[in-house]
């Protein structure tokens, strides 16, 4: 069937609340390439929103999952546990930043990992309040929505959200907000709104994802650690999008000289199979009573098998180093085009977690140009995603395993798309 025919069926059968960013329907994918229902080929710079860092259908993941299916697909870990759940916990405990004993739990989605991290923090501290950041994204469940610092489309129309969640600005250099501003806002919050002795946790993304791919400055991360230590607050790093080699390290927190108390993980943890995790200080993770954590599908044997293969692939194929190489090449190409496309005001991001932000000369965000770049790229066979509070950021999330020749092709398509988008927007404004 054609994409248009499938779109019509989708519109009549599926809730409009489940949005889509492209009109194509996938039929197969391999590494960084994807084919739609009409046989068109695309280079995938979305990677399932940072889920397939190790590429579509990596043979080692496929083999691991097939082998697990041959044994069993589900028993529920809370009923009949299995060894690979323990093995993955051991490996993540050892790999996560922090020179202290750690424990893990496994769930299914990133939002579920965040929910559990907040439960654990409250159980350990006996406190209720949580501080998060504007522009942050932590999921679509009710606590996830409360923590998320963006109303449209995530909070609008869903009624009252959990109380005792407070937001402060996130540092965004392109918009004049510094780390000092963010830390001062927390101080003001403690003076005006919430007693720090009631705060269980501060949660942040080392690089904001949906919010615009803004990296957390080292000053902010060190400052958060100091505030948490001073007031007995837990620091939670949401690594759902930043984890598993995307930023040039296994975890983005490895770029800093401090460790969080808890970390949430999902997306590329299992390379496309539903799995999430919370990893943290052993004494904190043990705060909930038995039965207080878990879920029927939490720690799926298939997802666990895939995750163990993901860790092997990252190590054996040097994906952290490759992320740095690819990211540097991408940023060099983008920065080399800024004279031609001056509206591309900022190119940023660690490793291969790269973004380009479009801002007019007067400082006005340009979501129309961002949309034009995305659309021009799609016409040429390159899938891109937008993000940002103003919708004016293109984020680049290709699989880190992308072949050199496919990556070179994608850079040429991107160059053509940026030029075409600027031409179309300029002509539209002049009309």
What would a concise description of this structure say?
The chain has helices spanning 3-13, 47-50, 59-71, 83-95, 110-125, 142-147, 179-192, 218-231, 282-285, 301-316, 319-336, 367-379, 404-430, and strands at 26-30, 33-36, 41-44, 102-107, 129-133, 165-168, 199-204, 234-238, 262-265, 276-281, 344-348, 354-358, 382-383, 385-387, 393-396.
Could you walk me through the main structural features you see in this protein, from its secondary elements to its overall organization?
This protein has helices at 3-13, 47-50, 59-71, 83-95, 110-125, 142-147, 179-192, 218-231, 282-285, 301-316, 319-336, 367-379, 404-430; strands at 26-30, 33-36, 41-44, 102-107, 129-133, 165-168, 199-204, 234-238, 262-265, 276-281, 344-348, 354-358, 382-383, 385-387, 393-396. The chain has 431 residues and is α/β, with parallel strands linked by helices. The protein has a seven-stranded mixed β-sheet, sandwiched between helices. Strand 14 (385-387) and strand 15 (393-396) form a beta hairpin. The longest helix is centred in the C-terminal third of the chain and has 27 residues, at 404-430. The two termini are 38 Å apart. The model has no long low-confidence stretch (mean pLDDT 96).
């Amino acid at each position: 069937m054609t994409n248009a025919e499938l779109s019509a069926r989708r519109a009549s059968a599926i809730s409009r609340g489940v949005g889509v960013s492209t009109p194509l329907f996938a039929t197969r994918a391999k590494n960084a390439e994807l084919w739609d229902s009409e046989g068109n080929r695309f280079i995938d710079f979305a990677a399932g929103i940072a889920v397939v860092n190790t590429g579509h259908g990596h043979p080692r993941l496929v083999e691991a999952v097939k082998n697990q299916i041959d044994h069993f697909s589900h028993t529920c870990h809370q009923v009949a546990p299995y060894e690979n759940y323990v093995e993955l916990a051991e490996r993540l405990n050892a790999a996560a930043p922090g020179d202290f004993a750690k424990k893990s739990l496994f769930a299914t989605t990133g939002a579920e990992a965040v929910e559990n991290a907040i439960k654990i923090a409250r159980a350990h501290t006996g406190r209720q309040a949580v501080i998060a950041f504007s522009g942050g994204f932590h999921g679509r469940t009710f606590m996830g929505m409360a923590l998320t610092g963006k109303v449209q489309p995530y909070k609008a129309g869903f009624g009252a959200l959990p109380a005792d969640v407070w937001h402060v600005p996130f540092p965004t250099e392109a918009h004049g907000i510094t780390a000092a501003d963010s830390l001062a806002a927390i101080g003001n919050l403690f003076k005006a709104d919430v007693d720090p002795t009631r705060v269980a946790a501060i949660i942040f993304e080392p690089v904001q994802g949906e919010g615009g791919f803004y990296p957390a400055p080292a000053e902010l991360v060190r400052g958060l650690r100091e505030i948490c230590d001073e007031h007995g607050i837990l620091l939670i790093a949401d690594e759902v999008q930043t984890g598993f080699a995307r930023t040039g390290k296994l975890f983005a927190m490895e770029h800093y000289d401090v460790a969080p108390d808890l970390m949430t993980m999902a997306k590329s943890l299992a390379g496309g199979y539903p799995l999430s995790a919370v990893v943290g200080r052993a004494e904190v993770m043990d705060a909930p009573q038995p039965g207080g954590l878990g879920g029927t599908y939490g720690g799926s044997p298939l997802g666990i098998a895939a995750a163990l293969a993901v860790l092997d692939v990252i190590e054996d194929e040097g994906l952290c180093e490759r992320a740095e190489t690819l990211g540097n090449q991408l940023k060099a190409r983008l920065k080399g085009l800024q004279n031609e496309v001056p509206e591309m005001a900022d190119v940023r991001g660690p490793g291969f977690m790269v973004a380009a932000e479009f801002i007019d000369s007067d400082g006005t965000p340009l979501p129309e140009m961002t949309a034009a770049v995305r659309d021009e790229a799609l016409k040429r066979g390159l899938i891109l995603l937008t993000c940002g509070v103003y919708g004016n950021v293109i984020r680049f999330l290709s699989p880190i395993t992308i072949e050199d020749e496919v990556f070179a092709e994608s850079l040429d398509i991107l160059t053509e798309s940026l030029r075409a988008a600027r031409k179309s927007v300029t002509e539209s404004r002049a009309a």
